[in-house]
Structures are given as structure tokens and as C-alpha cells.
Amino acid sequence: MIVEELNDPDDERLADYRALTDVELRTRFEPPHGLFIAEGELVLRRALRAGYRPRSVLVDSRRVAQLSDVDLKGAPVYAANPVVLEQLTGFHVHRGILASFWRRPLPSAEELIANARHLVILEDVNNHTNLGAIFRGAAGLGMDAVLLSPSCADPLYRRSVRVSMGEVFAVPYARLEPWPAGLERVRAAGFTILALTPAPDAVPLHQLRPEWRKQAALVFGAEGAGLSHQALASSDIRVCIPMRRGVDSLNVAAAAAVAFWELIRDEPV
83-138, pLDDT tens digit by residue? Predict the structure, then answer.
């Protein structure tokens, strides 16, 4: 591993890492350039383990030794002091390691539907923190794949990747289009579409019948707004998490984790 020390935040070799806190700028920059940013050593290692190819690595000069055993596939490694890192990225890089990776083509929704038993379907989830937490729950609690409506946020945005602790790499995902008409393709493949909603006519989650659990697609809406009327109308069964003390619902990521666990609680680990 050859490390180059860089002292100029305007160095063009560091263009992948510029203004990382500017969501709008990064959203316009990263997907068209076919890249995403991994933050922290653990996430970097998980991206490599998942087969993503690094473009470059940027590291705090004091942390270079942490990468001594990592095979970076010949990607350049740049080191800089914390002041330069903050000027470049727009925040204090307290984890000390950033890496730019090449994206991979997404699988088709049909491919994921054909190879899954338990699906997660998200409508308009555009909060990157919630999205990352949902992916982490999906990975840890046994969901097979995630389908995203066209307006969902990018799972490979830096904050989503970080919150998921790199588990966005462990769960395959695809865009489901058109929305919500694409739900009919899920149903046609044999799935029961379960829409999570606090509606009073919803079936309590723990009362799911065995035949509903067997091949299920759990559908979640955005924080606050919940599922659209069209998505609810396209579902088979409305499902709720029974609440207490007048609380109407949970954060979408927390609700997703509860639903994932309940769906497959009797299946072997």
C-alpha cells in the first residue's frame, strides 16, 4: 500500500470527497458518477467483503496503520491532517477513514421477487437515517430483499451506509416501478402484501395467520405521512403494531424492526 500525503483540500484527486454534508449536491454528484462514500474502517471492510471495488481511500494521517492488512485492490490511498479533511468534507471526520467505491448495477425487481420469501417494500422513505436503520434491521432479522418506490432515498448515500453499519451491502435492493402499480407484480408472484398502518381496522401484527407469514411483503411508508391511499388500496391486509399510552405509532425504522422480528420469529435462525 502506497500512501500519498495531501495538504490541499482543492486537490482534484480528492474530488470524490468534497462537501459531503451537502445532500443536494451529493445526490446530484454520486449516482451519475457511479460512486458512493463509505465512512469508517468497519464500513470500508464490509464494502470490500461485499465485493464493491474501491476508487480511492482518504485517511487521517494518524490512522494509516489501521489499513495495513486491507487489500484495496490497487486503489490510491490519500492521507491528510484533520484540518484538511474538515475543510474538504465539511465536517469533522471523527472515524478518520473515508473511501470512495464504484457502484454496481442494481438487480431488477423481478429478480429479487423471484428469489425471496420475505420482502420489505418502502414508499417515499426519504430520510437517510431511517433508511439505513431499516436496512440494518432487514439484514439482522432475516428479510431477503428490499424494494423501493421511485421517490425513496438512495441506500448508498453516506449517512444511510453509516447508520446501517454497512448492512446496506448485505441486503439486495431494487426500484419497484411503476408505483404503486408494481405491487401487482409482487402479488402475482404469490406474496401477501401487508401494509403497516395505525388505521383502526388493521390486524394486530401478532395475529398474522400462518398463511400470511409464509410469503409476505411488508410495506412501510414515510415518517409522519405513512402509506399513501393508493399503496393501502393496493395491499392485501392492513397490519398494525398495538400501541399503549396514547402513542399512535413508532418511528418507521423501529416499526420495521418489530415487524421483521414478528414475521419470522418462529423460523430457525
Answer: 999 999 999 998 899 999 999 999 999 999 999 999 999 999 999 999 999 999 99
DSSP assignment letter at 100: E
Angle between helices 128-140 and 252-264 (to 10 degrees): 10
Cβ atoms 176, 121 nearer than 8 A: yes
Q: Does domain 109-264 have CATH number 3.40.1280.10?
A: yes
CA-wise closest residue to 259 among 126, 114, 134: 134
Q: At the topology level of CATH, where does 3-102 sit?
A: 60s Ribosomal Protein L30; Chain: A; (3.30.1330)
Q: What is the pTM of this model?
A: 0.95
- φ/ψ bin of 137: left (φ > 0), alpha (ψ from -120 to 50), beta (otherwise): alpha
